[in-house]
Design brief:
The complex is a heterodimer of chains A (404) and B (104). Chain A is α/β, with parallel strands linked by helices and 404 residues long. Chain A folds into 3 domains: 2-105 and 233-302, FAD/NAD(P)-binding domain, CATH 3.50.50; 108-229, FAD/NAD(P)-binding domain; 321-403, 2-Layer Sandwich (Enolase-like, domain 1), CATH 3.30.390.30. Helix content of chain A is 23%, strand content 28%. In chain A, the strands form 7 sheets. Chain A has a 5-stranded parallel β-sheet. In chain A, strand 11, helix 5 and strand 12 (195-197) form a beta-alpha-beta unit. In chain A, helix 1 (7-18) packs parallel to helix 7 (288-302). Chain B has a single domain, classed as Rieske Iron-sulfur Protein (3-layer Sandwich). In chain B, the strands form 3 sheets. Chain B has a 4-stranded antiparallel β-sheet with strand order 2-3-4-8, with no helix packed on it. The N and C termini of chain B lie close together (7 Å). Classes of the chains: A alpha/beta (404), B mainly beta (104). Chains A and B meet through helix 7 and helix 8 of A and loops of B. The structure holds flavin-adenine dinucleotide and FE2/S2 (inorganic) cluster (FES).
Amino acid sequence: MVIGAGECGGRAALALRDLGFEGPVTLVGDEPHLPYERPPLSKEAMTGEAPAIKAIATDALFAERAIRHIHSVRAVAIDRAAHVVQLSDGSSLPYEKLLLATGSVPRKLPMPGLGGRCVYLRTFNDALAIRAHLSAGNRVAIIGGGFIGLELAAAARKLGAAVTVIEAQPRILMRGVPAEIAEIIHKAHEAEGVAIRTGQGIAAIDDDGKEVGITLADGQRVVADLAVIGIGAVPVTALAAEAGLAIDNGIAVDEQLRTADPDIFAAGDCCSFPLAVYGGRRVRLEAWRNAQEQGALAAKNILGGEEVHAAVPWFWSDQYGLTLQIAGLSDEGRSIVRRDLDDGAFILFHLAEDGRLVAASGIGPGNAVARDIRLAEMLIAKRASPAPEALGSQAVKLKSLLAA
Amino acid sequence: MSDWVEACAAGDIDEEDVMRFDHAGRTFAIYRSPDDEYFATDGLCTHEKVHLADGLVMDDIIECPKHNGRFNYKTGDARGAPVCVSLRTYPVKVNAGKVLVQVG
Ligand SMILES: Cc1cc2nc3c(=O)[nH]c(=O)nc-3n(C[C@H](O)[C@H](O)[C@H](O)COP(=O)(O)OP(=O)(O)OC[C@H]3O[C@@H](n4cnc5c(N)ncnc54)[C@H](O)[C@@H]3O)c2cc1C
Ligand code: FES
């Protein structure tokens, strides 16, 4: 049984069947939809007339694979001794093995004054509600200069809305993105007419349900028809915590995605796990490919496998015509080597003290950095220490370093 | 039967690499395998219509540059999330140093 019908839970249910499991598979989710992809929700896909949900499976596929999808129902309690999950509709379901794929939810802005025009973005329904306000002439304030906020700013500009981004930190994308790349993105937004206020805490918010007034720390006011708050996400752990499972910035699992209960696993945005490629450093990722990979891995290990999560974290973001891709965690690096590619694209390679390649961050138009980031990811997985001169020279093919 | 069209010179593509080829309003991806054979598929990923030619070729796999969806370029088969729809493949032959694709 899988709790949470998102990217991770959906992939896990399908993977159980791909791996030949023939017992019953139940996928319980509190959203009314089939499992769907969240990344398009903040991107250009939302700018169309009638944005469509991008489901990762159809009812027909679930029927064909004998996966029972229970939607619009929450799991409210786990009785580990009895191996039973209580659902919000009053029913209960027994399980042999349980996968928690409950994901994460937007971090709440801890301030008074928030009303109906202060919203968050996580679900398709959130996205539709936001979309209704993104028209020419409307004013949108984005609180938080992270990926979701910035992507949404780009989408809002495309629809002609006036956009202000408010970020408390000295620059946008402080977390996980090198300054050199954040600057490119900052400039792209300014060139498209977005006002960015960095280093600005919020002193007060007043929201009368029609308009939001935001008073910044320096006394300036930003008035908007809609404020979207994007200040990070927190893992959904209450269900696990109440069942007595350990929580450590997420549901704590080992490198095989097992909790301390041999019959309960956790995967995706909701869990923290030791990352093999960095010597077992405990991390929690909020990334789409990780949710897929961990869903598939959890399915394997639920069926008796003992495979370790060995993947290198990978993330992308699209804003205007630019795509950013990051492989690895750049805060593991101590020095940076830059490799310039065609069309203004470039990649920063992050090297550890001992010269090991630990991360690569790239930005450029379209998919200009994709191939080299993918090769860098393989080098990181191999724990390679390529010569900095080779990394820095476009003339040296990264593929050749991989063979070395 | 439709025509064979010239896509490129055999030497234009490195071994274990891919090139984009546009013809009559359609886009294709032409591959040269590590064992020096040539193949052709639709040029766009079945997930979000991204040009596969920006992706990475490894053995007989092309990996989409956008979200790392994988296809076997020899058969067109989708090989794992997020792609589930396979690519169409096209016959290829090499003649006098030219790579020809039957685009029908
Ligand atoms: C707007 C947006 C844009 C994004 N863009 C990118 C991007 O460009 N690149 C990238 O790498 N990642 C991106 N992400 C992150 C990516 O979407 C997530 O990492 C991924 O969705 C995580 O999958 P998950 O299944 O772990 O969690 P989720 O997708 O959150 O799914 C969890 C599901 O479980 C349900 N649930 C929770 N508790 C219960 C319960 N008790 N009972 C029943 N159901 C429950 C939730 O309602 C939810 O439907 C983006 C996310 C958002 C929101
Ligand atoms: S566009 Fe190819 S995998 Fe998504």
